[in-house]
Amino acid sequence: MQGNFWEQVGGRPTFEKLVRKFYEGVATDPVLLPMYPEQPDLEGAIQRLTGFLEQYWGGPGTYSEERGHPRLRQRHFPFTVNPDARDRWLAHMRVALDSLELSPLHDTTMWGYLERAAHAMVNTFDE
């Protein structure tokens, strides 16, 4: 395979499709939706997550140029991210990732990262 992961899976269109599908699920989730202060318009969140994932997987560094270091745990600390929220996030992301129909290698690679990231965001075990 040639190119980095971002290029191999189709670049920005692939990541934007992933994130938009993910937020379709979030928009209907009573636990996750309140974590997005810009609701009901999630466009800002869509652009931030798309940019972050693009940069992480080898695409343009626009996310850091605009927002600085990702600091994922710090940015999510104001929100209650318990195991239920994590599992809901992962469920919506699994649906979104399945919609891409990536090769098994690319799917497994991306899913492994998403699972690790979701587990790392848990900041409480309280309901």
Automatic annotation (TrEMBL):
InterPro entries: GlbO/GLB3-like, Globin-like_sf, Globin/Proto, Globin_bac-like_CS, Hemoglobin_trunc. PROSITE patterns: GLOBIN_FAM_2 (PS01213). CDD domains: TrHb2_Mt-trHbO-like_O. Pfam families: Bac_globin (PF01152). Heme binds at residue 119. Its cofactor is heme. One of its GO terms (molecular function) is metal ion binding. It comes from the Bacteria. Keywords: Heme, Iron, Metal-binding, Transport. Belongs to the truncated hemoglobin family. Group II subfamily. This is Globin.
